[in-house]
Amino acid sequence: MQLSDRFTVTDDVVAREVGGEMVLLDLTSGQYFGLDTVGGRIWELLSERPHTLKELCDCIESEFNAPAQQIEADLIALAQQLQDQKLIAAETA
Fold it and tell me: Fewer CB atoms inside 10 Å of the end CB: C or N, the chain?
């Protein structure tokens, strides 16, 4: 997974904020997933339009007080988990 990879939210996911946490429901599997504040913000951005991981990193870095290197590592890990669960999909060129 590279920072230049562009992702979009898949069609079979419903998201709602509940008690400060973003809760995702995969309509295909019936599974629920929870995202913290930063993960929820990433989800909001991806829901608006497809983004590269670099674009997401830049946005999170400007909104949250964390080192860029840590944001990149955490974002790549989160994107991998979301992609593994088929909640987001990589856009093909």
Answer: C
Q: How far is CA 83 from CA 49, 62, 89, in A?
A: 16, 24, 6
As to burial, measured by CB atoms within 10 angstroms (0-12 exposed, 13-18 middle, 19+ buried), residue 88 is: buried
Residue that has been written with the tokens 């669960």 in this structure:
85
Instruction: Name which of 91, 92, 73 is nearest 81 in CA terms.
Output: 73
Q: Which tokens go with 69? A: 């290197």
Predicted confidence at residue 93, as pLDDT, reads: 56
The pTM of this model reads 0.87
What's the rounded Cα separation, in Å, for the pair 11 and 20? 23
User: Residue 18: what residue type?
Assistant: V
In degrees and rounded to multiples of 5, residue 83 shows phi and psi of -70, -40
